[in-house]
Amino acid sequence: MQRNSFIAALSAIATVPLLSFSSMEKVIKRKTEGFKINAGEGRVHGHIKLKGVNSNILDVKISGSDTDNDLAIFEQTSLSQGKGTPLHIHPGQDEIFYVLEGAYYFKVGDQTYNLSVGDSIFLPRKVPHAWTQVTETGKMMVIVQPAGKLENFFVAMSALDHEPGPKEIEQLFAENEMQVVGPPLKID
Q: Which range of residues forms the domain containing residue 12?
C-alpha cells in the first residue's frame, strides 16, 4: 500500500517539470522585442479589405503570431453604414470593442447597446453577439483574447474574388472557430 502511494507521488512530482517546460516553451517562442505600428498601417497584412459581411478595412496592429496566439488587436475602419456582422458566437474568444469614431449598435445576448466615440463594450465568449454600423463612417479598436482564428477569417474574406452569399459566409465563420446563429442586426 505504501509502495503504491510512493509510486503515485513520484509520478506526480515527475510531471511537474514537463508542465513547467511546456509553459516555458510558450514564453521562449514569444517576441522578445517591442515594435511599433504606425498610424494607418497594418502590421502583417497591410490593409485587409473585407467582402461579404461589410466592406470595412482592417489593420492588424498586434497579430496572434506576435503573442503566441494569446492576444490580437485590430483597428477597423468602418465604411458600411447599416451593415454589420450576423449574430454569431466565438466559443473560445472574448472581444472588446472601443469606438474611436462614429456610432454602432450592438447586441450581446438579449441586451442591445448604442455605442459612440469613447464607449467600450465587452463581448464574452460563448454569448451570441452582433453589431451594425450606424453612422456613415466609423472606426473601432477590436481586442480579441485569445487571438483564435479571427485574423485568418479577415484574410480569407479579403481574398475572395466575389461577394459571398450567406451560406458561404456561414462556412467561412465555421472554418475560423465561429458559429453564425442569426441574421445581422437591423437599425430601427
A: 1-30
Q: What is the tally of structural domains in the chain?
A: 2
Q: What are phi and psi of 81, to 5 degrees?
A: -55, 135
Q: Looking at the structure, do residues 15 and 82 belong to the same domain, yes or no?
A: no
**Whole-angstrom distance, CA of residue 108 vs CA of residue 124:** 8
Q: Looking at the structure, tell me whether residues 104 and 153 fall in a common domain.
A: yes
pLDDT in tens, 75-113: 999 888 988 899 999 999 999 999 999 999 999 999 999
Tens-place pLDDT, residues 120-130: 999 999 999 99
